[in-house]
Amino acid sequence: MSLGGVGRIAICGYRRILASHLPHVQRITLQFSRQMSTEMQSVASRLQSSGLLRTQGLIGGKWTNAYDGKTLEVNNPATGEIIAEVACMGRKETNDAISSAFDAYKSWSKLTAAERSKRLRKWYDLLMAHQEELGQLITLEQGKPLKEAMGEVGYGASFIEFFAEEAKRVYGDIIPPTLPDRRLFVLKQPVGVVGAITPWNFPLAMITRKVGPALACGCTVVIKPSELTPLTALAAAELALQAGIPPGAVNVVMGNAPDIGDALLASPQVRKITFTGSTAVGKKLMAGAAGTVKRVSLELGGNAPCIVFDDADLDVAIKGTLAAKFRNSGQTCVCANRVLVQEGIYDKFADAFSKAVQNLKVGDGFREGVVQGPLINEAAVNKVETFLQDAVSKGAKVLLGGKRHSLGMTFYEPTIISDVNSEMLLSREEVFGPVAPLLRFKTEEEAIHMANDTNAGLAAYIFTNNVQRTWRVSEALEYGLVGVNEGIISTEVAPFGGIKQSGLGREGSKYGMDEYLEIKYVCLGDMNRN
Ligand code: ADP
Fold it and tell me: Which of 149, 268, 385, 528 has the greatest number of CB atoms lying within 10 Å of its CB?
């Protein structure tokens, strides 16, 4: 079965499946009728009639094909069906998007904060008004269950609402001068044009978390969504236009990722790169940004420990670990990657956790009651299989699952594997799939050592009823986020980001604004002259 895998992205297909002289919308309709099952077609036609199904890039407020007509397929990971073919863009289109963003910056940055705020608020209202369609789009191209997808729309939109409010709070400072005839001011000004490169696991929220604060501060953006999930990004951009965010303030290009990335890095007009994705690509972007000394925010891979102490409430620990591990089928950078369980509670936890995981219903995200969708593509399943084989060959035991699901495609059984140790791939790297590896520990010190024994430092979770331990361990963990007796901790009002090789900068909250602001010091002299 052909899937929208990583390999496909780099090389855009030349295939133009439908006559290019037909009006755009009509081409999409024809494509649906040829390629999709009846069920998918009905979801797709609902989306289409909402006007949110876009397949061209957005440059300077105009929906635009790739200049050479290339397209790339977007697949439904649950069925392998082609949902749409989108423009496969590269360097030239990106350069034009940058120029549009640069032009739009001149006026967008000059609007009052209140005016920018109003338009962002309108964008939020429109995102929420279309929560259902956007949720369907996310399930269609990303695979997560519809309820979870609708949750992502609410979460994603919350960043726009929050930053619409923060737009009005970009305060400067007045500093007491060191000389009597001087006055010292600090102004905060927008960074300029921002390149925002985003992944497939949260097709909407990873965009709004960057674009919300950027626009609020007065920046303009060129978004490069993942080629696996561009449709949600395009729909969100359509709503931004409808909200009165001016042409050129939000541009979207997708296609040849390295070419688009290189164009963003090379341009002196792009003053900041904000990226969420793999550590390997993040490092490349960081190095590439050096050429023009751009600001960089990176939200990279994690290797989250989830530490369950003997004194934890078992039910709370099970519920929290389940959420931290199996959300989005394990495909988030804050997903628990290692479950460290203290020896006194280990067997009880393993037993109760297995019972809970057994009940997770796997299937197409559109089916009622499904909580585990497919993995994003074949490469993702292969990775899970490799990690599992490695662990089993080194002595780990599969307690539950451990193989592809009988549904086929990219469905994988929710899996628990015990007797995992720190030498196994499952402990060293992100599995990004529905596999919970259990590791045993004796003491608090050992747990902290195991938890910190990684280059990653994004999220960590602890389960304990001991207040002193909560503080001690939270302080000792080398992570940017710590959940205590809670597995879902992301919110628009709190700072999200990692330390060590998990990244730079923070997203969400008042701190998220700083990433898009420059500080300017103004010294006013000769104050005593009349
Ligand atoms: P993942 O493994 O989660 O897909 P990636 O880091 O490969 O993570 O992808 C995250 C985003 O980075 C996607 O939008 C992808 O297209 C983009 N990307 C991948 N390689 C590059 C590159 N060389 N330059 C710029 N963007 C890239």
Answer: 149
What does the pLDDT look like over 363-400, one tens digit per residue?
999 999 999 999 999 999 999 999 999 999 999 999 99
Which segments of 243-373 does DSSP mark as H helices, in order?
A: 257-266, 279-289, 314-326, 346-358
Alpha carbons 255 and 89: distance in angstroms, whole number: 5
Q: Can you tell me the distance from the alpha carbon of 499 to that of 484, in angstroms, rounded to the nearest whole number?
A: 18
165 is catalytic: no
Compute the half-sphere exposure of residue 208: CA atoms within 13 Å on the CB side of its CA.
Answer: 31
C-alpha closest to that of 197 among 223, 160, 236: 223
Owner of token pair 């990684």: 454
Sheet holding 193-197, edge to edge: 62-64, 57-59, 250-252, 220-224, 193-197, 270-276, 295-299, 503-504
Q: Is 12 annotated as catalytic?
A: no
SS3 assignment, position 173: strand
Q: Which whole number is the average pLDDT over 26-44?
A: 57
Q: How far is CA 86 from CA 230, 327, 463, 478, in A?
A: 8, 28, 45, 41
Separation of CA 67 and ligand 1 centre (Å): 22
Amino acid present at 4: G
Q: How far is the CA of 333 from the centre of ligand 1 (A)?
A: 14
Maximum Cα–Cα distance across the chain: 85
Residue 35: pLDDT band (50, 70, 90) is low
Q: Which is catalytic among the residues 333, 378, 413, 444? A: 333
The pair phi, psi for residue 112, each rounded to 5°, is -70, 155
pTM value is: 0.94
* Residue partners of 21: CB distance under 8 A and separation at least 6: none
- List the one residue out of 162, 150, 265 whose CA is nearest residue 215: 162
Distance in angstroms (rounded) separating the CA atoms of residues 51 and 389: 46
- pLDDT for 279 beyond 60: yes
Q: Which residue's C-alpha comes closest to atom 18 of ligand 1?
A: 257
Bridge partners for 362 per DSSP:
372
DSSP 430: -
What single letter denotes the amino acid at residue 163?
A: F
**Residue 28 clears pLDDT 70, i.e. is over it:** no
Of all protein residues, whose CA lies closest to atom 11 belonging to ligand 1?
199
pLDDT tens digits, 435-483? 999 999 999 999 999 999 999 999 999 999 999 999 999 999 999 999 9
CB 218 within 8 A of CB 188: no
